[in-house]
Specification:
Strand content: 5-15%
Number of helices: 15
Number of strands: 11
CATH topology of the largest domain: Rossmann fold
Helix content: 40-55%
Radius of gyration: 23 Å
Number of domains: 2
Shape: globular
Length: 470
């Protein structure tokens, strides 16, 4: 286990101060002197916008800047969309953070898509610009959601000396290899069992056509008991939860029909766009297919899936032979990767678990795009590296991808600030305490009741490190 010297910024931390929100909520911040205050405008928040190396940026520095900079990394944006540069997850969270004296910064990255390579460069370039223009912060905390979560964790691994702590939200923390391999399993099963091997699941030359065909096939399958059973199996190989809407309660454990309906919604409304459209973009970027299913036993994968009881029940109701379908998957020709693409995806990025700063992750339990099992992979490599004392993981009992309320975001940041100010986690990640802290931010920031929960994710179904051999 590697240990680096604590950054000078952490050693210079002074005691924290309490700032009071207009709603009467105390929120921890650190009042310290920073290098200079050329970006601080006594008349209000100073907003800086521009472009660095082809990436747009947004910086906001409040008049009461407390010396801490929060560097936000945004989620996946499909190619063809404008390059946007948010500096927070949502306007309400941004407003509360600015009111408490935090400076905010964020980059669009110079490219959309699976642009981790560009994001790492562009976020560090933005930090350098901030240091030169506004003064070096007392401490910098990266945070971000979805693809921004994997970028946040990647920044911590690649540039630990630049940061005091980090907060990846709903992050792709299984890393690129595991994430895209597990997505391949679902696409592979869908193609074999429902599409009659008619779809390209790698080397996708016409992603729009493949996506449209897949949508038509899954819509037809959902209309029959046999199709629904097979959709459940496809979903189980990616551990897709049977909970879709953040405004609906989680289905009962034995309500398999509702669970499958929700998995159908995840596939048809969310996941297929990534399985076909985003994979094609990644292949173009990586120079080939980075995924494989050599050596995968799909009977074993189902046995380890959290959805296995649902699959067995729906197959029995439909009068289908589950063993027959699993045998068909295991007999089907395997997909081999293009090694240069694997090397690319391994570089951007596979996690080694080496932490030098405190990290707090957050995830919703009913996330069907980036499943909560991603958190298990990250915790396991951190544990193997001997750095578990630096990691805490919080879970919110809610469906949806990154469906945190502003109050829950703020409670997470407050928890991380507590760790940085005191040098101890104590019981700060206790769900009851975090729910109390979120509630204290008031109705305007609690768009839903706070829902932090004690939760332990199941193991991620796919290996998530670079293989010794294929």
């Amino acid at each position: 286990m590697k240990r680096r010297l604590l950054s000078l910024g952490i050693m210079l931390l002074l005691c924290s101060t309490l700032a009071t929100m207009s709603a009467g909520t105390a929120f921890a911040g650190t009042a310290v002197a920073h290098t200079h205050n050329s970006c601080v405008n006594s008349g209000g928040t100073n907003t800086l916008q521009g472009t660095i190396d082809g990436a747009n940026y947004l910086i906001q520095v409040p008049s009461n800047w407390n010396g801490t900079l929060l560097l936000y990394s945004h989620g996946y944006v499909f190619v063809g969309s404008p390059l946007r540069a948010p500096d927070a997850s949502d306007p309400l969270t941004a407003g509360a953070l600015l009111q408490q004296g935090y400076a905010l910064a964020g980059s669009s990255y110079s490219q959309n898509g699976w642009a981790l390579q560009q994001a790492f460069h562009d976020q560090i370039a933005l930090l350098n610009f901030f240091d030169t223009t506004c003064g070096q912060p007392t401490r910098t905390i990266p945070w971000g959601d979805s693809l921004g979560g994997i970028i946040t964790a990647g920044l911590v691994q690649l540039f630990p000396q630049r940061f005091a702590g980090a907060m990846p939200l709903c992050g792709v923390l299984a890393g690129g290899i595991g994430t895209w391999n597990q997505a391949l399993d679902s696409a592979f099963a869908f193609n074999i069992l429902l599409a009659g091997s008619s779809l390209p699941v790698v080397h996708i030359s016409n992603p729009g056509d493949a996506f449209n065909k897949a949508e038509a096939i899954i819509q037809a399958a959902q209309a029959t008991p046999q199709g629904r059973a097979r959709i459940a199996l496809v979903s189980a190989l990616g551990d897709t939860p049977g909970w879709f809407s953040a405004t609906s309660p989680e289905p009962a454990q034995n309500d398999f029909a509702t669970q499958e309906q929700n998995q159908f919604l995840w596939s048809s409304q969310v996941d297929f766009a990534f399985i076909f459209l985003a994979r094609a973009e990644l292949e173009s970027r990586a120079g080939g297919n980075p995924s494989w299913n050599i050596g995968v036993d799909y009977r074993d994968q189902l046995e380890r899936s959290v959805d296995r009881k649902e699959v067995r029940a729906l197959y029995e109701q439909a009068g289908l032979n589950l063993d027959h379908d699993l045998d068909a998957l295991n007999r089907a020709p395997r997909i081999t990767p293009d090694l240069p693409a694997v090397f690319y995806l391994n570089r951007f990025i596979t996690f080694n678990g080496d932490l030098d700063i405190p990290v707090l992750t957050m995830h919703t339990t009913g996330d069907g795009l980036v499943v909560n099992q991603d958190e298990q992979t990250y915790a396991s490599v951190v544990r193997e590296s001997g750095d578990s004392a630096l990691l805490r993981q919080a879970f919110v009992h809610r469906a949806g991808h990154c469906t945190f309320t502003p109050a829950e975001n703020l409670a997470g940041i407050q928890t991380l600030i507590h760790r940085l100010d005191t040098g101890r986690w104590d019981d700060s990640t206790d769900p009851d305490l975090m729910n109390q802290e979120a509630s204290a931010f008031g109705a305007a920031l609690n768009l839903a009741p706070p829902a932090f929960i004690n939760f332990r994710p199941a193991p991620f179904l796919r290996p998530f490190a670079f293989p010794d051999r294929f």
